[in-house]
Amino acid sequence: MRKKLTEMKTPKDEPRRTHAGPDALRRRYFDLFDLAPMGYINLSETGHILEANLAAETLFGVERGALANQSLTRFILPEDQNTYDRHSKKLFETGATQTCELRMLRADDSPFWVQLDATAATGVENPPECLAVIIDITERKKLEDAQSFLFQCGFKDSGESFFSSLAGYIARSLKMDYVRIDRLDKAELSSRTLAVYFDGKIQDNVTYPLNDTSIRDGEGKTICCFERGVRHLYPQDAVLQELKAESYVGTTLRGFDGKPIGLIAAIGRRPPENRRLAESLLKMAAVRAAGELERRQMEQRIIDVSELIQKIFDASPLGIIAYEASSGQCVMVNEAAARIIGADRDTVLQQNFNHLDSWEKSGLLTAAREVIQTRQPRENIELHIVTTHGRDVTLNCSLIPFFSAKKPHLLMMGQDISRQKLADSALRQNQKLAAIGLLVAGIAHEINNPNGFIVFNLPILRDYLQELVSIADDYMGDHPDRSLFGRPYDDFRKDLFKLLDNVEHGAHRINATVSGLKDFSRKREKLEPRRVALRPVIEHAVSICRREIQNNVKSFQLAIPESLPMIQTDPEAVEQILVNLLINAAHASDKKDSWIRLCVNADKNRPDRCFIQVDDNGCGMDETTLKRIFDPFYTAKPSVQGTGLGLYISRNLVEGLGGRIEVESLPGQGSSFKVVLNDY
User: Fold this and answer.
1) Are the CB atoms for 100 and 83 separated by under 8 Å?
2) Kindly report the CA angle at 192 between 190 and 193, in degrees rounded to 5?
3) Lowest model confidence (mean pLDDT) among 182-191, 195-204, 631-640, 655-664
4) Rounded distance, CA 376 to CA 385, Å?
5) Does pLDDT of 191 surpass 90?
6) Which of 145-159, 259-273, 338-352 has the lowest mean pLDDT?
7) How confident is the model over 462-509, as pLDDT tens digits?
8) Contacts with 168 (C-beta within 8 Å, 6 or more apart), sequence order
């Protein structure tokens, strides 16, 4: 049973154990839970906070002691309460991990966006609990909102209304008191404002010299930022002095030829809340504003609208693709999207979403057609997709309809969250293993001790019975018609020792199962690769399981090249992997002419990489079994042969050595396992 960290026994409460005891497990739990970069909280079914880590304390701005027993709804924006209620209800009804995005409140009631991943805790006493992972996605949300604003504003607004809308949006998004968008004159010695947003209102435009201003210093840079004390650096700047300005963030607007044509400046009476967000948003805004300013200044030149939008796309950290809605043809793509798909931009531009199997299989095609038909955007669509170019991606995307040149188009903005998903999965697995480790430590102690009495006393009991049976033999010889328990004496005598054999076999199975549980919970955390000759390692692994092979298989073939080079690996791990594979192959034997082949080869182009293959002509596996063979505790063997942990542990060891394991199998024809070591 998984215990809370605060309830774990200390060394004073329980004798110190060898190997990975409670102290080590507590330290591991502390590292995983308390020092994680994301917020972690334990919640009761009623939504009350039971435990919180340091990151959660920072997110809410409340000390952990004060968080305890508070309802999580205290920190959720009222408008998003229904989202959380649905999320929580579904979690405890189904037990499946739930994910949602909503807005929360800090101690000072300032809102922020989070992604909330909740997993029902297993193996705990009533009432039920859950573990919630809280990730601050405020910055991502604001960048997505800015991207959407810039795109939509770019088509419905132009001229003065565009710059005024942009200035107001920047001020509100960054909580700055003053935002100015300027156009530089040819001499670059003065500037004309295109929009001035001050304390919530649009001001009249003016012309002013650039000398002795903070803007003049930032004019040549991509981004210029002063987080504190900017008014003291420029005592002649009247705007800074009047505002009593503390901070300044500015960016240069550049024409298509790369020359400065304008400026955006955001000024605040306080330091910016998030400098990185401010800089990213201004970079995105600068591309769109520069395009609009260039259009106004150079009306005699025909501007390719697609090129203008492309600049906005390329400035975005998100993958963005635009499609012509009626035909499905791709018309625009940025570099980030091309990287996600795994192709160059020219190749992506040739795609038509109506003809992409990846869109149809993932459900993206259905969602896209729905957005085009209803003209309603869909956000935060999470799906797994194998792209046409072979990339396996978990994607979080939004679909937005828009018009260009009086034609309907579809904009797709997406982010590759595959690594995040893998990291979350690995963290959840480690948390499960930490909990199992606590459980197994108790199981091993409480089961092995009494089971040891059984194993130790069975041979003595057998000797006692042998003596008693010799007496019974003499007696029954004189009374041949006598029966015991309604059975002839000879049958009773045989059954008596068969029962002893069954008890002994069961006791050994208990030992094997507990040992497998300990290996599973421990996982080998520290592999020790070194330069080794592979032949002795393989031969030793074969010798360990040779008797098992001889008892089950008619022929065994071993092929190891004489010139096999030394490789960098952990020999004990390789030995354990091979023993598991060979024993599995032996147990799969079901034919009179059964065989197993073990072949080892080095990669001719990469001497440090090698291939170990174990083939058999045994019972094989169907597709359903193949999909689950690496799951812990899953086995197709009879209960007397396996615990379902061997392949799970083998795959973890192979991956820990920087390799991979591949398997092919057909029912009734056999299986082939291929281990690739040092597959960097």
Assistant:
1) yes
2) 135
3) 631-640
4) 23
5) no
6) 145-159
7) 888 888 888 888 888 888 888 888 888 888 888 888 888 888 877 877
8) 179, 197, 202
The mean of the pLDDT values for the chain is 82
Question: What SS3 string covers 552-618?
Answer: HCCEEEEECCCCCCCEEECHHHHHHHHHHHHHHHHHCCCCCCCEEEEEEEECCCCCCCEEEEEEECC
Residue 367: strand, helix, or coil: helix
Over residues 34-58, mean pLDDT: 86
Pairing of strands 207-209, 260-268: unpaired
For residue 557, which phi and psi values (nearest 5 degrees)? -115, 135
- Mapping DSSP to helix (H, G, I), strand (E, B) and coil, where does residue 268 land? strand
As a whole number of angstroms, the distance between CA 308 and CA 304 comes to: 7
- Distance from the Cα of residue 71 to its chain's centroid: 28
Q: Would you say 598 and 557 are in contact if contact means Cβ atoms under 8 Å apart?
A: yes
Residue 396 or residue 26, greater confidence? 396
* Residue 623 CB partners (closer than 8 Å, separation 6+): none
Please, are residues 53 and 42 in contact by the beta-carbon 8 Å criterion?
no
The per-residue pLDDT for 431 is 57
What's the rounded Cα separation, in Å, for the pair 248 and 255? 23
Inter-axis angle of helices 646-656 and 571-587, nearest 10: 150
The structure tokens listed for 460 are 């003595």
Write the CB contacts of 655 (distance below 8 Å, at least 6 apart in sequence): none
Residue matched to tokens 């615990």: 643
Q: Tell me how many degrees the CA angle 13-16-18 measures, rounded to the nearest 5.
A: 155
CA pair distance 653, 659, nearest whole angstrom:
9
Kindly report which listed range (115-124, 442-451, 652-661) carries the lowest average pLDDT score. 442-451
Taking residues 626-638, report their average pLDDT: 73
Three-state DSSP class for 352?
strand
**DSSP states of 102-168 as a string?**
EEEE-TT--EEEEEEEEEE--S-PSSPEEEEEEEE-HHHHHHHHHHHHHHHHHHH--HHHHHHHHHH
